[in-house]
Amino acid sequence: MKQIYFDNCLTSQPAPEVLDSMMPYFKENFYFPRSFVSGGSRISSDLEKFKKIIADSMGADSSEIHFTTGGTSANNIAIKGYLSANAGKGTHVILSVIDYPDLLANAAFFEQSGFRVTYINADKEGFIDLDELKSSIRSDTIMFMTTLANHVVGTVQPIKEIRQILDSADHKIVMHVDACEAYARLPINVKELGIDLMSISAHKIHGPQGVGALYQRKGIILGPVKHGVSRIDTLETGGVSIASIAGFAKAVELIFNHFNEYNKKIKELRDYLLKEIEEKIPYTLLNGSQEEKRAPHNLNISFDYIEGEAIMMMLDLSGISVATGSACASQGLKPNYVLMALGRNHEQSHGSMKFTLSRYNTKKEIDYTVKKLAEIVKELRSRSPLYNKE
User: Fold this and answer.
1) Please, which residues have CB within 8 angstroms of residue 281's CB and are 6 or more apart in sequence?
2) Domains plus CATH for the chain?
3) Lowest CB count within 10 Å: 91, 156, 240, 390, which one?
4) Active-site residue set
């Protein structure tokens, strides 16, 4: 069997149609946009079409879409751009202790620069404490940041309720949403949800690596984060690959033309994987929320008495790619900060595995994976001093 890939949280396989859509921009249509030049004008027209595809997918206007070099770039442009341009309105920011590293790192940067940051807690399923959010709002609060679908356990935050809480303040509080794990897997309408800024990424949805986009609601002012010549966008200065943008747009088009079908399939595969693991492997624990309150592609499970890194390496030897609980948290063997914040202990955190599925996965792959996983878990537990079950 070919390599089985269950690490779509990290990156995903580019769709064949995506690669085909990119080739003309590597060959004959390699120009940057430019006025009064036929080739450049044609690329400008293509870029507007690509923007519209992205905008339509989230209920935005084309003018509100900025192409970036990825989700991290979009997060930095949104957070640094807004806080630097609007510090005169306030210097207090709110986010949670379980947010994506991009958000936490930016918050820490501004905290060192004199801003005040409040880090709110989450419950055992990964939902942020809304009462704590409400009580944290101050007269100088200007931004709330959140990760729409948690990158570790897949829990989906209640954005509408959050927006209502923010709107209860007597001044504007901008909401920035990292939607890189949620976009194209959950229905998102930025207008209906009251999102002001939102980052998305292509390579997590079968598009190319190295390209993403930032949604910037009309009227939201961002200061420049990168200074230099504007080739594609005034916020992401310098060159951005036209071919990659074309591939991004094609990936979005493919998904949203079959949105319900694709996500129904992924959710069914995820639920089947969970059922098989729970039936065939004892002493496991599902991390995160249940069913509709988690992203359809995410399954995070702790295997008691053993290390996730050992499971990952042994699965890799069997041709199966998965992630440990430390993914997106550290490059070392530290317990995952999200799982620890949810009340898991060190052993449960270290023994966690994250399976993130795509429309290219099959039940046959899951059957093979669970078979190998059961063998590996049994073998590792037989060596573990923590395990003494008969």
Assistant:
1) 303, 370, 373, 374, 377
2) 4-12+259-383 (3.90.1150.10), 16-257 (3.40.640.10)
3) 390
4) 328
